[in-house]
């Protein structure tokens, strides 16, 4: 039985997605040209990778003349959330708490980062309280 195809992004796929998120609609040649010269992939590698991204549902194309133009159909924030959920499920048993404790346990958290985290937690608590108040009505 062939291995199950992952719906997460490989490094090469992520590089192309970042270009699409930044540049918008691109041909394969546009993508190759937009890559830094020191890490530029071959045209055929980009073509293969962009087709894989289309199969995974991250990219769609339209034809203009003989060229295919590719566009990201998954927003960067949505892709980030998908990857975080994948890591949380795979390594932390779907526990946000265990994930956050692992991140905070590294000890490299600045006071500014802690302040933003506290603010995000307070906002999440307020949103949850508001939602439960609506249900209680």
UniProtKB/TrEMBL annotation:
Pfam families with a match to the protein in the record: Penicillinase_R (PF03965)
Gene Ontology molecular-function annotations: DNA binding
GO BP field: negative regulation of DNA-templated transcription
UniProt keyword annotations, A-Z: DNA-binding, Transcription, Transcription regulation
InterPro entries: BlaI_family, WH-like_DNA-bd_sf, WH_DNA-bd_sf
Family: Belongs to the BlaI transcriptional regulatory family.
Protein name per its UniProtKB record: Putative transcriptional regulator
Organism: Terriglobus roseus (strain DSM 18391 / NRRL B-41598 / KBS 63)
Phylogenetic classification of the source organism: Bacteria, Pseudomonadati, Acidobacteriota, Terriglobia, Terriglobales
């Amino acid at each position: 039985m062939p291995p199950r195809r992952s719906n997460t992004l490989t490094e090469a796929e992520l590089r192309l997605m970042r270009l699409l998120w930044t540049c918008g609609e691109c041909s394969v040649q546009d993508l190759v040209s937009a890559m830094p010269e020191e890490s530029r992939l071959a045209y055929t590698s980009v073509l293969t990778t962009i087709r894989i991204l289309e199969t995974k549902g991250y990219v769609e194309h339209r034809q203009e003349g003989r060229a295919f133009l590719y566009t990201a159909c998954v927003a960067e924030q949505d892709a980030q959330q998908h990857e975080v959920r994948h890591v949380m499920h795979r390594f932390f048993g779907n526990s946000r708490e265990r994930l956050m404790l692992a991140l905070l346990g590294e000890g490299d958290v600045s006071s500014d980062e802690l302040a933003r985290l506290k603010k995000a937690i307070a906002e999440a608590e307020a949103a949850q309280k508001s939602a439960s108040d609506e249900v209680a009505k």
